[in-house]
Design goal:
Layout: E1 4-5, H1 13-23, E2 30-35, E3 41-46, E4 50-51, E5 55-60, E6 65-70, E7 83-84, H2 91-112, H3 116-132, H4 137-151, H5 153-156, H6 162-170
Antiparallel strand pairs: 1-3, 2-3, 4-7, 5-6
Helix pairs in contact: 2-3, 2-4, 3-6, 4-6
Length: 171
């Protein structure tokens, strides 16, 4: 297996894909970029594995495999969800992924809730989890605005303005 030390992981999806092609990665042997046991960033091709909530992947050189460790919130993003090891290519991209998951969960909650109060209760639990992981309230507010703008009809039938929904969920 070809493991290369690098200065930094790709910060865009296109660069991520390009680096994977350059390394010769394929389906089932996916491109990864993460720290190794010496906390140096490396890139390689390997089958992906699930990473548990509040954990980050780490490449173990002597075993040629991916392990995971509890994240240090002060040093980066600690995803509060299960995710694939090959999606951890940058904290910016991971942040985007997590905000997409946040919105997807809001959609799911809105569809499953017959009452606005049920939706708020579920959404508040989710936002509390994100906030406890160090996410900035302004980012969650922005995601709530996106949700409301694109999928507001799921909660508008309750005649709830955006400002109230944000206050109810993030207050």
């Amino acid at each position: 297996m070809n493991v290369r030390p690098i200065k930094s992981c790709p910060t865009t999806f296109d660069l991520f894909k390009s680096r994977g092609r350059n390394l010769g990665c394929s389906v089932g042997n996916e491109y990864h970029c993460m720290v190794n046991e010496q906390k140096r960033e490396v890139e390689f091709c390997l089958s992906r594995s699930w990473i548990q909530p509040d954990h980050c992947p780490e490449y173990i050189s002597f075993a040629s495999q991916i392990d995971q460790y509890a994240c240090n919130r002060s040093k980066g993003v600690c995803p509060p969800i299960v995710y694939w090891s090959n999606t951890s290519f940058s904290s910016t991209s991971l942040h985007r992924l997590l905000m997409t998951c946040f919105i997807s969960q809001l959609i799911r909650y809105a569809k499953a809730s017959t009452k606005y109060t049920d939706f708020v209760l579920r959404a508040r639990r989710l936002s509390d989890k994100f906030l406890s992981q160090g996410y900035v309230c302004d980012r969650l507010t922005s995601s709530l605005r996106k949700f409301y703008g694109r999928f507001g009809e799921l909660v508008i039938h309750n005649d709830v303005p955006l400002s109230r929904m944000v206050d109810d969920i993030l207050a």
